[in-house]
TrEMBL record:
InterPro entries: SseB_N. Pfam families: SseB. Residues 16-127 form the SseB protein N-terminal domain. Residues 1-13 have a biased composition (Polar residues). This is SseB protein N-terminal domain-containing protein. Residues 1-25 are annotated as: Disordered. It comes from the Bacteria. It comes from Pseudarthrobacter enclensis.
Length: 139
């Protein structure tokens, strides 16, 4: 990962980051950000390695400003801060939709903690996304 450490934190690296960058603008559509997240490969980090297709991992969970647990999710492997890698050195890619489907009801989510492009979703917001956004083959 040494070649990625010099990446500019304010330069969007993929479609999801482009949507996150425009998400705070007055004419931004939050649905675009959510759809991009659901359809993008995103990254979680874990102290566990993936042994096989059915292996389970315990992803890194952080505490937000209120002390509530939030799943740390990253839009690009280079967005994972070194301090997180020390606790959970394995960077694992998955679809954003898989995160939403498997996160549970008591856990919020933070995208790119500490980075320029990121946001936090509380457990209710995660449940709303799960309820309101279905895969095309589920409708």
């Amino acid at each position: 990962m040494t070649e990625q450490q010099g990446i500019d934190d304010t330069n969007p690296l993929n479609d999801l980051e482009e949507k996150l960058a425009t998400g705070g603008q007055p004419d931004a559509n939050p649905v675009d950000v959510i759809l991009s997240f659901l359809n993008s490969e995103v990254y979680i980090i874990s102290s566990d390695t993936v042994e096989g297709i059915d292996s389970q991992v315990e992803p890194l969970v952080l505490a937000n400003a209120d002390g509530d647990p939030v799943l740390a999710v990253f839009s690009h492997p280079s967005r994972v801060d070194q301090q997180y890698l020390e606790a959970a050195p394995n960077v694992l890619g998955t679809q954003g939709a898989a995160i939403i489907a498997n996160i549970g009801d008591e856990l919020g989510m933070v995208i790119n903690p500490g980075a320029a492009y990121g946001f936090e979703i509380n457990p209710e917001g995660v449940a709303n996304i799960r309820r309101d956004f279905k895969r095309a083959d589920e409708q």
